[in-house]
């Protein structure tokens, strides 16, 4: 992996430099915004775009976007480190090793059944909770499970990444994308769920089939999956026995805290701070019931957190792409130009145009909630002009925001997942591109259908 470590950082750095250069060419401009006093979300005022005096970025300012991006992504970075540290404690108790060994024994000879099971679980997390960065601590566990079952690292990463990603795209109960977009569009919260559930089934089924077929080829050695990457989190499955009382206690703690987390997210609107706190408590208590003293708990926490540093910093670097666009005041100009392209066309082409526009915008505004707040005030007006239902406009936003999350080098959690698995972006893109094309075709078909049936309300 050491030979590939610079690639991701260099790629994102070059994108930042390119955006900085583009700020000299693209006109500076801005929309008026207002802040909703109840939600605290900043909304764009439609038809308020105005060009501004050109904002030229100095070399220092371009470099400044990197620490600024790190700071703006600080809550996600801290979450990843805390969750990684907590799982480091849990892993050191040997509980995860034993659980995985039992799964290996149970599914011996029928290993591929684990793929749909894992992907469905993570897809529901993506569809209901908007799980993305939150899944990062799970990658080492499922990569190791994949290796133990005779697959490869790419299969392990794909189970989690494409599971959460395909569910996130549909987002039938995702408050951070669907909820915000529908609220801005003045639609009833989570209305039109039936169509989104259909989209969920389509995307998740396609993803499972794609991963399953690849894993089957790896298992039968029809393809060469020798990646030659070092991976520090591989488990030793030799001489492991069944769960003892210590492992049972740790397992109970994990289950109780995940139930607590589930209730907190659904009923009490837990977000990054509360979720981070839950993971921290889960790790410490797991260490205590696992028989560790305070020094051992701290040591294992630091070790687990250090394994996540590489991926955590990538999240901040990806955020810097958006920051440099804000510095150059060109983000609103890009959004305005895209909105002008799709105004005044028919419903079918309008919905497809919105999808393409949202896809391009997501390369720079990688936050789903942030993209909804920035674009939906404009898109809902364009939808009205083009005869596109606002519900379809929200659907186009979801597809545009979701598909590229598992392909774009500016997607922080995606690049972090690849880093954890020791998979290069180039290798993943080559492997993922057929599925991405299928997703896009499926998304366009669903948008055409939604336009024909007048998917509503309004």
Automatic annotation (TrEMBL):
Segments passing through the bilayer: 7-26, 73-93, 114-132, 154-173, 194-215, 247-266, 278-297, 309-327, 334-356, 406-423, 435-455
Protein's membrane topology: Multi-pass membrane protein
Pfam hit, one: DcuC
Domain of life: Bacteria
UniProt keyword terms in alphabetical order: Cell membrane, Membrane, Transmembrane, Transmembrane helix
Compartment list: Cell membrane
Coiled-coil ranges from the UniProt annotation: none
GO cellular component: plasma membrane
Predominant cellular place of this UniProt entry's protein: membrane
Stated name of the protein: YfcC family protein
Species per Swiss-Prot/TrEMBL record: Anaeromonas frigoriresistens
């Amino acid at each position: 992996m050491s030979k590939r470590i610079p690639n991701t950082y260099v790629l994102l750095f070059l994108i930042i430099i390119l955006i900085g250069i583009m700020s000299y060419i693209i006109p500076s401009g801005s929309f008026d915004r207002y802040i909703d006093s109840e939600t605290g979300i900043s909304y764009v005022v439609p038809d308020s775009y105005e060009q501004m005096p050109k904002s030229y970025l100095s070399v220092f300012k371009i470099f400044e976007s990197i620490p600024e991006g790190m700071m703006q992504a600080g809550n996600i970075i801290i979450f990843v480190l805390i969750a990684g540290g907590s799982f480091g404690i849990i892993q050191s108790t040997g509980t995860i090793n034993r659980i995985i060994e039992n799964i290996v024994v149970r599914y011996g000879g029928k290993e591929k059944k684990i793929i749909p099971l894992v992907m469905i679980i993570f897809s529901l997390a993506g569809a209901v909770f908007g799980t993305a960065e939150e899944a990062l601590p799970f990658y080492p566990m499922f990569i190791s499970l994949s290796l133990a079952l005779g697959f490869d690292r790419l299969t392990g990463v794909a189970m989690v990444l494409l599971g959460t990603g395909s569910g996130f795209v549909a987002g039938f109960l995702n408050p951070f994308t669907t909820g915000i977009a529908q609220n801005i569009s003045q639609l009833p919260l989570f209305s039109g769920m039936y169509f989104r559930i259909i989209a969920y089934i389509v995307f998740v089924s396609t993803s499972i089939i794609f991963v399953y077929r690849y894993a089957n080829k790896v298992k039968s050695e029809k393809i060469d999956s020798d990646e030659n990457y070092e991976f520090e989190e591989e488990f030793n499955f030799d001489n492991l026995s069944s769960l003892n009382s210590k492992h049972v206690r740790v397992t109970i703690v994990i289950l109780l805290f995940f139930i607590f987390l589930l209730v907190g997210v659904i009923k009490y609107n837990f977000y990054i701070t509360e979720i981070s706190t839950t993971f921290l408590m889960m790790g410490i208590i797991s260490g205590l019931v696992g028989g560790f003293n305070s020094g051992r708990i701290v040591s294992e926490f630091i070790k687990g957190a250090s394994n996540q540093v590489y991926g955590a910093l990538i999240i901040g670097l990806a955020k810097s792409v958006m920051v440099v666009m804000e510095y150059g005041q060109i983000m609103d100009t890009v959004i305005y130009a895209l909105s002008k392209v799709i105004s005044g066309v028919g419903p079918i082409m309008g919905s497809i145009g919105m999808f393409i526009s949202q896809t391009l915008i997501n390369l720079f505004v990688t936050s789903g909630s942030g993209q909804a707040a920035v674009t939906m005030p404009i898109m809902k007006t364009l939808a009205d002009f083009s005869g596109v239902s606002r519900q379809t406009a929200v659907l186009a936003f979801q597809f545009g925001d979701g598909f590229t999350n598992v392909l774009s080098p500016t997607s922080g959690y995606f690049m972090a997942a690849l880093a954890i698995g020791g998979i290069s972006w180039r290798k993943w893109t080559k492997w993922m591109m057929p599925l991405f094309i299928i997703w896009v075709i499926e998304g366009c078909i669903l948008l055409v259908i939604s336009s024909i049936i007048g998917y509503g309300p309004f």
